[in-house]
Specification:
GO terms for molecular function: pyridoxine 5'-phosphate synthase activity. Strands 1-2-3-4-5-6-7-8 form an 8-stranded parallel β-barrel, surrounded by 8 helices. It has helices at 14-23, 30-39, 58-67, 80-89, 116-128, 141-150, 160-167, 171-190, 206-210, 222-231, 233-251; strands at 8-12, 44-48, 72-76, 93-96, 132-137, 154-158, 194-198, 215-220. It is 49% helix and 16% strand. It has a single domain (8-251), classed as TIM Barrel (Alpha-Beta Barrel), CATH 3.20.20.70. By secondary structure, it is α/β, with parallel strands linked by helices. The chain is built from 11 helices and 8 strands. It binds 1-deoxy-D-xylulose-5-phosphate and ligand LD2JLWAY. The site of 1-deoxy-D-xylulose-5-phosphate has 11 residues, from loops.
């Protein structure tokens, strides 16, 4: 069995901005949330600048780049507008995600094969600017292999189908999704890709994913921001961190 290296927690603060935007104005401030998340043990901050700006704004990205002392993982669609913003800021990491204007949340992974040549050209300047490029994909061997072909350094596996199956009590589907996540983590690692995972993870679903030794980072947002309403952001994050660490230790026997 391979050793389990450190597992990082990236806290996604998008939905602090969702609440702010419900009324306009400045509160609650996602940058303040990001700084509290750092203090609570987040290893990085994730923010998704959607094309429709439904939560994070351009000004939030400007301020995050100024304020953070941990790395920013900048999630964005593969558009010229977003590429220009990423090239201006040169964040630590850029994660390319699919976007549909009408979707409630990021519904699936990017279909790399549908536009493989364009994506290979698209990520080249981002890598040259010093950002680590990650591709948000479903746990699918063809997508993993395509991510490697286009020159990505990292993949982030979409855990939404696994979390939905868990929430809906579809145990066989949940277990099948988990097996796919496990197998694709190992496959991607064998191809030299760094493996991250995220979307929809909660206290109840995080442990099995955290235990996969190839997974180096989990990005978690919506659940943590919701939980923070009841107990505060720092305790909510500290508990997630503790559950991740316990699962990691357990997987090392
Ligand atoms: C790509 C991804 O999974 C995150 O960006 C997260 O889901 C953000 O929330 P929304 O999908 O609701 O924008
Ligand atoms: N890339 C996934 C992410 O950043 C967090 O997703 P969620 O926990 O807000 O669903």
């Amino acid at each position: 069995m391979m050793d389990s290296p450190e597992l990082r927690l990236g806290v996604n603060i998008d939905h602090v901005a969702t609440v702010r935007n419900a009324r306009g104005g400045d509160t609650p401030d996602p940058v303040r949330a990001a700084r509290l998340a750092e203090e609570a043990g987040a290893d990085g901050i994730t923010a998704h600048l959607r094309e429709d700006r439904r939560h994070i704004s351009d000004a939030d990205i400007d301020r995050l780049m100024e304020a953070l002392s941990v790395p920013l993982n900048f999630e964005m669609a593969a558009t010229d507008e977003m590429q220009a913003i990423a090239l201006r800021h040169k964040p630590h990491a850029v994660c390319i995600v699919p976007e549909k204007r009408e979707e409630r949340t990021t519904e699936g992974g990017l279909d790399i094969m549908r536009e493989e040549d364009r994506l290979a050209r698209f990520i080249t300047p981002l890598r040259e600017a010093g950002s680590r490029v990650s591709i948000f994909i479903a746990a699918d061997a063809a997508q993993v292999e395509a991510a490697q072909r286009i020159g990505a350094e990292v993949i982030e596996l979409h855990t939404g189908a696994y979390c939905d199956a868990h929430a809906e009590g579809r145990i066989e589907d949940r277990d099948a999704e988990l097996r796919s996540l496990r197998d694709m983590s190992a496959h991607a690692h064998s191809l030299g890709l760094e493996v991250h995972a995220g979307h929809g993870l909660t206290y109840d679903t995080v442990a099995p994913v955290a235990a996969f030794p190839e997974v180096r980072e989990l990005n978690i947002g919506h659940f943590l921001i919701g939980e923070a309403i009841f107990r505060g952001l720092e305790p909510a994050i500290a508990e997630m961190r503790a559950r991740m660490d316990a699962a990691r230790r357990g997987s090392q026997g």
